[in-house]
Amino acid sequence: MSQNLAIVILNWNGKKWLEKFLPSVISHSQETKIYIIDNLSTDDSVSYIQSTFPTVEMIKNDKNFGFAGGYNEGLKKINAEYYCLLNSDVEVTSNWIEPVLHLFEKDKNIAAVQPKILSYHHKNYFEFAGAAGGLIDNLGYPYCRGRIFDDVEEDKGQYNDETEIFWASGCCFFIRSKDFWDQNGFDERFFAHQEEIDLCWRLKNNQRKIYYTGKSEVYHVGGGTLNKQNPQKTYLNIRNNLSMMLKNLPFPKLIWLIFFRLCLDGIAGIYFGFKSGIPHLWAVVRAHFGFYAQAPATWKLRQKHQISNFYQTKWLIFKHFL
After folding, report:
1. Which of 70, 91, 198, 285 has minimal CB crowding within 10 Å?
2. What pTM did the predictor assign?
3. Bridging pattern class, strands 151-152 and 147-148
4. Are 147 and 220 in contact (CB under 8 A)?
5. Is residue 158 part of a domain?
């Protein structure tokens, strides 16, 4: 079955990550075709891959399309039943593929799957970007089993199950190619951050399932391209989260929730300003204007049906911080 899978790594000036982690991917992915999609890197990562790993197929984009557009553009050239979209800063383990493919084979309604994602630097703890599967609260805040906001849990086997989740992490994202293209891939306007949550939400709106398996483990460095201290990350996360809600929330929740979130983001902006500096406060302001600018086009992308039971818990931000 692994012959029906394409492992696809998006690269932009990531030679140091490819040097460190690509050997583990090759070693633990026998009989599986591996692709690198390059987003017009300016370092020597392309020549390095071509000379060092001749079995890895290189796809060159003609500009930096970001995470969302980079994958959309590169995946057009890959023919496979399943895609594994894998960050370059991920260390995989033995038998990381088979449990995922088993789930796909077991249930044809499963569109996407993620493995257990642990921290590369603290391997007995979950990693921020995905942990043990993504969920969302009634205010549209994404969180994970094993990670709520910035607080992560130690892995004590509490999430060694296989269960349905709301969203799968983009750092190690398995998806049926048909489901990916039925939804026209990622929303390229997002550029990076939360595009996988938006895609999973659209899949859920179309009665498709997203799953997690604790039988597969990978280790993620995190922040390899854009770290948490970068105001651009704050900007993209807030703008994209608002656009995602406008696109996917059902009425009448949409009206009051968007308004409520705008108020909460104002409070968050002040908090970020005191905690991380004025650039982060300004990033929140820019995010809102970016959301308003995208809103007419986002509205046109709303689907005919939006699920009403989109959340797994209520008022997470108040429960966690207050």
Report:
1. 285
2. 0.94
3. antiparallel
4. no
5. yes
